């Protein structure tokens, strides 16, 4: 395993920690700044919106620049944003720090995925992408519980100081361990040409729906665990560690499976996620079953990530950077969609298990789109055209047009 992948994973760990640890520290942050819980919630939603903007704008702005220096610059933005959060004297300054840190999120994973894939043999690209995203899963398994405990013991600012330090370590690691991959010969026009591919758009839609279904259920999982399953609120953080373990397992196995067949893997995993969410909804009142479902929800939910990211890069052919960043933005749009749908079902009076049902429904829609995309790819392949056939890892498919 190239050590450069470890450096990229550390960067992913820091970014994942920045995104999720605030959820456990929100009451302390709100009390410190004297704002309401709803106002403090903007530290989460504002971050997510900034991720979408940064994933597209920064990727476009840096298209012609070499990828490694761009990644180092993005990490400097990440370090600056978390440093600002750590020392922020006001809520407004804290929000500004969150937005600055978030701007690098999508572009980092989008560009980092391209760099990671370039560090390994063609048949190992999905596994390399999964390795980079392992940092994100580790942030959920270990980083969020430990970061929350640190913030509660030494003050919430200490957590952001620690995240800043992680950013510095990642920056040094990428500087020294990730080899330069030559000049980026792409251009904005060439990167935009990737979106002429029907399969790029279909892959992005599957990302929104497939990941949105899982995250919609996950957003309200604390309420499900306490109000439906009957666990105490003190047990929730440790139950979420189980989800994190599932995320880690799913990410690794999903990457390996995607290297053997992206479309086949995504169809199987999305179908499995539907079953898991529906089964969870039906048996959420059973604590033993709930523990099992939490593990499986994390595993199937995150097993889609390497395949979805790799699929977009394959069909974007020689211009994968912007498409890769757009897919990271799609993950965050899926988060928003799933949370919105789950909130609607709760507001409608269907109870705290209802986000599991809405998540299953959204995932069914993603499965349907994925089935159509795979069928279209097979049809194009059997007709002798490679423009929409699944790209082999060693020979990416050329970009197709929407009219083809």
Automatic annotation (TrEMBL):
It is found in: Cell membrane. Residues 4-383 form the Major facilitator superfamily (MFS) profile domain. CDD domains: MFS_NepI_like (cd17324). Its main location: membrane. The keyword Membrane applies. InterPro entries: MFS (IPR011701), MFS_dom (IPR020846), MFS_Efflux_Transporters (IPR050189), MFS_trans_sf (IPR036259). Keywords: Cell membrane, Membrane, Transmembrane, Transmembrane helix. Pfam families: MFS_1. The chain crosses the membrane at residues 42-63, 70-87, 99-121, 128-148, 160-180, 200-223, 235-254, 266-284, 290-308, 329-350, 356-377. SUPFAM superfamilies: MFS general substrate transporter (SSF103473). It is a multi-pass membrane protein. Residues 382-404 are annotated as: Disordered. It comes from the Bacteria. This is MFS transporter. The lineage of its organism: Bacteria, Bacillati, Actinomycetota, Actinomycetes, Micromonosporales. The gene is araJ_2.
């Amino acid at each position: 395993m190239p050590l450069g992948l470890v450096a990229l994973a550390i960067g992913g760990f820091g970014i994942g920690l920045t995104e999720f640890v605030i959820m456990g520290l929100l009451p302390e942050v709100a009390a410190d700044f004297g704002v309401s819980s709803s106002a403090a919630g903007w530290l989460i939603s504002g971050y997510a919106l900034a991720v979408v903007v940064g994933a597209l704008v920064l990727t476009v702005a840096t298209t012609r620049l070499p990828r490694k220096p761009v990644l180092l610059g993005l990490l400097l933005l990440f370090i600056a944003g978390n440093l600002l959060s750590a020392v922020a004297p006001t809520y407004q300054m804290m929000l500004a720090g969150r937005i600055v840190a978030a701007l690098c999120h999508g572009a980092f994973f989008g560009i980092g995925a391209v760099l990671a894939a370039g560090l390994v043999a063609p048949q190992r690209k999905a596994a390399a992408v999964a390795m980079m995203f392992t940092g994100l899963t580790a942030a959920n398994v270990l980083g969020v519980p430990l970061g929350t405990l640190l913030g509660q013991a030494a003050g919430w600012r200490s957590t952001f100081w620690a995240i800043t330090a992680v950013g510095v370590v990642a920056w040094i690691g990428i500087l020294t361990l990730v080899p330069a991959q030559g000049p980026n010969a792409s251009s904005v026009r060439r990167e935009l040409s990737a979106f002429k591919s029907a399969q790029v758009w279909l892959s992005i839609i599957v990302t929104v729906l497939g990941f949105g279904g899982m995250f919609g259920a996950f957003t309200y999982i604390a309420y499900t665990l306490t109000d439906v399953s009957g666990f105490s609120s003190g047990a929730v953080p440790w139950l979420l560690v189980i989800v994190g373990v599932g995320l880690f397992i799913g990410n690794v196995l999903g990457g390996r499976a995607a290297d053997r067949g992206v479309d086949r893997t995504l169809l199987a995993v999305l179908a499995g996620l539907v079953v898991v969410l529906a089964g969870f909804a039906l048996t959420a009142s059973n604590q033993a079953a709930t523990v099992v479902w939490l593990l499986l929800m994390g595993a199937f939910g995150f097993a889609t990530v390497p395949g979805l990211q790799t699929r977009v890069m394959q069909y974007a052919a020689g211009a994968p950077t912007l498409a890769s960043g757009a897919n990271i933005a799609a993950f965050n749009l899926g988060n928003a969609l799933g949370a919105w749908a789950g909130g609607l079902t709760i507001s409608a009076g269907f109870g705290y298990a209802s986000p599991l049902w809405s998540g299953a429904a959204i995932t069914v829609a993603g499965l349907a789109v994925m089935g159509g995309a795979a069928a279209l790819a097979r049809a194009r392949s059997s007709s002798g055209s490679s423009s929409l056939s699944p790209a082999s890892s060693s020979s990416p498919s050329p970009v197709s047009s929407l009219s083809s």
